[in-house]
Design goal:
Strand order of the largest sheet: 3-2-1-4-5-6-7
Largest sheet: 7 strands, parallel
Distance between the termini: 38 Å
Number of helices: 8
Order of helices and strands: EHEHEHEHEHEHHEH
Structural class: alpha/beta
Shape: globular
Strand content: 5-15%
Length: 263
């Protein structure tokens, strides 16, 4: 694939987890990376790490749910770099709540970041991409919601499914402007957020994945790398699943058969 040298990429939620993995991959592929995160201190730490790897990177503190703040931040990046080539709308929250536990505050918080935040970022980026006649936008959704369900995550699932509906229609609207909009759908990924349950639980999660291990944030980053490449110009309005085959088994019996093959 063509190098990303000279390209400017914004990664929201880029200070940790999947966002950090995306930022690392795009930066190592040559892009100037803007790590946008609500946690400014973490964003600065990640930026220092990236610079230590030779990546051109900078951090901005950003609450994606705040439309005015997003507009100011994106306009500032465009003014400084002269362009915005890539927008990775990755920032997200995932507080667990069973159906009967969902309240207005929690619902608004999840949709505010996961859906409205993504919309804010796409709108702001597209305003700069359209005049340039080029842009690559990738939303980080999930297999949970668009493709599967999981107990305790209904509000999260709803937000991730909503992102896909927005992405597909937005992709049509900007298709004649040289802009593509796609989404990556991660499965079980080994991130800092996933470490809370403990190593035993992580091993159980890995056993549920046909490849036998949990993906790294960079595995999602490489999926994004394809979608933001100039060569992916004919791919728009689609989803790319990065799940190690997690969705493939029709039952747990299949996983037991896979384990037996390893003996």
């Amino acid at each position: 694939m063509e190098s990303l040298n000279g390209r400017t990429a914004i990664v929201t939620g880029g200070a940790s987890g999947i966002g950090r993995g995306i930022a690392r991959v795009l930066g190592r592929e040559g892009a100037a990376v803007i790590v946008a995160d609500v946690d400014g201190a973490s964003g600065e730490r990640t930026t220092r790490e990236l610079r230590g790897d030779g990546v051109q990177a900078e951090a901005i503190e950003l609450d994606v749910a705040d439309r005015a703040a997003v507009d100011r931040a994106i306009d500032g990046v465009a003014a400084e770099h002269g362009r915005i080539d890539v927008m990775c709308a990755n920032a997200g929250v995932f507080p667990p709540a069973r159906v009967e536990e969902i309240d207005d505050a929690g619902w608004d918080a999840v949709l505010g970041v996961n859906v409205r935040g993504a919309v804010n970022c796409v709108q702001a980026a597209v305003r700069h991409m359209r005049p340039a006649g080029y842009g690559r936008v990738v939303l980080t959704s999930s297999i949970t919601g668009p493709m599967t369900g999981y107990p305790g995550w209904s509000q999260y699932a709803a937000s991730k499914a909503a992102m896909i509906g927005f992405m597909r229609t937005a992709a049509i609207e900007v298709a004649r402007d040289g802009i593509t909009i796609n989404a990556v759908l991660p499965g079980n990924i080994r991130t800092g957020a996933a470490h809370g349950p403990g190593e035993e639980y992580l091993q159980q999660m890995a056993a549920a994945v046909p490849v036998g291990y949990l993906g790294a944030p960079e595995d999602v980053g490489w999926a994004v790398r394809f979608l933001v490449s100039p060569e992916a110009r004919y791919v728009t309005g689609h989803t790319l699943v990065a799940d190690g085959g997690q969705l493939l088994p029709e039952s747990s019996d299949v996983l037991r058969e896979i384990a037996a093959l390893d003996r």
